[in-house]
Every structure is written in C-alpha cells, then in structure tokens.
Amino acid sequence: MALDKETVMAALDSVALPGGGTLVSRDLIRALTVEAGTVRFVIEAPTPEEARALAPVQATAEAAVRALAGVEAVQAVTTAHGPAAKAPSLKIGQHPTPQQGGPAPISGIDRIVVVGSGKGGVGKSTVSSNLAVALAKQGRRVGLLDADIYGPSQPRMMGVSKRPASPDGKTIIPLQAHGVTVMSIGLMLKEDEAVVWRGPMIMGALQQLLTQVEWGKLDILIVDLPPGTGDIQLTLCQRTKLTGAIVVSTPQDVAMLDARRALDMFGKLKTPVLGLIENMSTYVCPNCGHEAHLFGHGGVAAEAAKIGVPFLGELPLELDTRLAGDAGAPIALGDGPAAQAYAALAARLIAGGMA
Ligand SMILES: Nc1ncnc2c1ncn2[C@@H]1O[C@H](COP(=O)(O)OP(=O)(O)OP(=O)(O)O)[C@@H](O)[C@H]1O
C-alpha cells in the first residue's frame, strides 16, 4: 500500500486517548504531511495541561506511524491551543422564542427520528449512536443530536469532546465523528457540570440545538431523548416535524411498563411510532457459548404485536458493546454480531423510507 495521508490517519486512528476516543476521532491531528518517507504532524490539545498529559500518546502515535511500510522518519510535536481567542460568546440555555403554526421541519434535514424509552439505562443512547454509525456506513448522511440535556452521553459514546465553534456567536458548528455529524449540549458544558434549569430554559436550549446548529444536508437526524415523558419530549414533538419515534426497551416487565408510557405519550402527541427495539435481549457466554436471557426475552416483540407497531429487532447484551461505547468507538463500526444487528436495523429503516 502506498504511503499517503490516509494511511497515516488510519494508523493514528488506532491510537486511543486516556478519556476515550482516538487522536483522529477527537480531531487532535493538525498539519499532517508525508514527504518521501518522512511523516510530520502536530497533536493539538485543547489546553497546556492536556498537552502535557499527551506525552505518552505522542510516543505511541510515533511508533504506530513508524511501523507503516515506507516510513523512514517521523517528526511529531504536541502543542496546545493556549488561551482561546475571545470568540463571540454563545449562551446556551435561554428562554424559547415563540413559534407560529404547528411543528416545523428543519431546513436541509429530510427526516428526524427520535429515539426514546420510558425507563433510563435501557440503552437508548447506545442504540442512537450505533444506529447513526450503521446508517452512515450504508451511505446515509446522518446527524446525531443528544437531547438528553440532564445526562448527555453522546460525547463519550461518539468519542468527541471539543467545544463546537460558534464563529458569530449565533450559529454552532457541529462536530464530526465516525461519519456522523454530532451535537450535544454536553459539548458546551464541562464533563461533570450539572444542568440545573427549569422547563423554559431547557426548551430554549433544545430550540438552540435544533435551529442554531449548522447541520448541513442530512438524510436523517437521530435525536437521543432523555428517559421518561417530560419537557424535552413535549417540546420536540410539538415544535418539530418528526418522521417518528423509535422506542427502546429491555424485555423486563418494569422497563416495558415505562415503555408503554412513552408509547402513550407519542400517541397523545401524534408522533408516529416507527417501531420498538428490544435491547439486552440475549447474552451468549463468551466462555461456554450458553445463551441466557437476563432480562427475559420476547416481551418487546409481543408488545409490538399487541399494539400493532413494527418490531424492529433485538440487540444482544454483550461486554464489547459496553466497552465500545465507553471508548467512544461504537460497536457498529466493526462487523461482529452486534454490528450485524445494527446493520440489519439500518438496512430495514432505509428500505422502509425511514432513514
Ligand atoms: N446491548 C448492550 N450490551 C451491553 N451493554 C449495553 C448494551 N446497551 C447498553 N449498554 C450499556 O448500558 C449502559 C446504559 O446504556 P445507555 O446509556 O445507552 O442507556 P440510556 O437508556 O441512554 O440511559 P440514560 O437513561 O442514562 O440516558 C451503558 O453503560 C451502555 O454501554
């Protein structure tokens, strides 16, 4: 294989960062050049402290590039942004502006699909990120909006952490990860900063994420909702023209009870339910191959049949899915059993005109 920038970037994409993600997925590589066997690049950290902490990562990156065929010399430096130039300040969290008429589409976005659940922790964010990646792998232009304002998890799951730029203090430039355009309120806050807002501020923040982000042209925007049936769900369904909702549940009775509430809410808000997904459906022991159903099995399919909505599929409970999410590289990027299940789900949505 010829030595070129793509080959070097692929090698750098294998270099994991301490907080999750890779040098490439977190967009830290600058000024990469390849000249007659000599590779030069800059690792640009957001702060001088982070730059110091990246010294071992630089060594790993140099070794990864040096191992490529045709590389004779590697010259890498790690720098920091330094104190950020004073950008026009963008305030996230404000009172919503009134909207005339009914739910409005977002210009440039063909379909908006929300992913919801009744209960927390059933895998809504995992499904959203993996579905986004699986759809992007099948050639769709995909956006992922993390609307879980109280507990944003997409920055970690997609391996992004850079604060999105706002060149004019109004528009927000989203980030790119694994072929997906990503925006989360978590990117505008410090990782452990809590959002302590009342309903109107939340609605205003959501409105900003939907309308001030430069999404570009998308075939589908996937919105990862917070759990439950609160202000965010209400605002989104009433103000934005949605293609529909996907409801994720585990097969457990308590999860299904809450999922029914979510379904009831979408019914009341006249948001079409595109289908149900059963997550953490089966567990195959990696040592002996025994298949177990830790949270039961088939409950979601039975519910879908009962209420007459499509059952979109079941996803296995597996350690690799959790590890991949924590590492910022969704499991759907690979080709194992979970990735195949997500690929089938993506293909089904595309075939049905939903993505
Ligand atoms: N199929 C799976 N196999 C293994 N682990 C999973 C699976 N689905 C989700 N998880 C893990 O379970 C945890 C909760 O998942 P996730 O954050 O996606 O749920 P959620 O419904 O979005 O939660 P929240 O209510 O906090 O938003 C995460 O650590 C995730 O990695």
Automatic annotation (TrEMBL):
Highest taxon listed in the record's lineage: Bacteria
Assigned keywords, A-Z: ATP-binding, Hydrolase, Iron, Iron-sulfur, Metal-binding, Nucleotide-binding
Cross-referenced InterPro entries: FSCA_dom_sf, MIP18-like, Mrp/NBP35_ATP-bd, NUBPL-like, P-loop_NTPase, YlxH/NBP35
Annotated GO biological process: iron-sulfur cluster assembly
Domain MIP18 family-like: 5-75
Function: Binds and transfers iron-sulfur (Fe-S) clusters to target apoproteins. Can hydrolyze ATP.
Chain intervals for the UniProt region annotation (Disordered): 86-106
Protein name stated in the entry: Iron-sulfur cluster carrier protein
Quaternary structure, from the entry: Homodimer.
Organism, as annotated: Pseudorhodobacter turbinis
List of residues binding ATP: 118-125
Assigned protein family: Belongs to the Mrp/NBP35 ATP-binding proteins family.
GO terms for MF: 4 iron, 4 sulfur cluster binding; ATP binding; ATP hydrolysis activity; ATP-dependent FeS chaperone activity; metal ion binding
